[in-house]
Amino acid sequence: MTVNVVYIGTGMMLILLITSSLYRKQKRKGKVVCVVESICTGCRRCVKKCARHVLETATGETGIHAVVKYPDKCSACGDCLGKCKFNALKLVERI
Description:
By secondary structure, this protein is α+β, with helices and mostly antiparallel strands. It has a single domain, classed as Alpha-Beta Plaits. It is built from 3 helices and 4 strands. It has helices at residues 2-28, 45-49, 79-83; strands at residues 31-35, 55-60, 63-68, 89-93. The strands form 2 sheets. A two-stranded antiparallel sheet has the order 1-4. A two-stranded antiparallel sheet has the order 2-3. The radius of gyration is 18 Å and the shape is elongated. The protein starts with a helix and ends with a strand.
């Protein structure tokens, strides 16, 4: 009896995990990461975390900050968003 409860609970958790992942992927479709240069400190945490090498650092009028070098390669996975302590990254609609 308890074995069945464990199997049912595990199955329900697996289904919930899969559906939430698909929902998040659909929600991110058509989005790309954008850097708010006035907030970015140039710490490079997001650049190091980006698996697709979309972000790089650049020196501009406001100092060193991250830039989106290859927006067409961005999958809007959100890994870089989680690494930024300063909330200098956001997801915007892809143009």
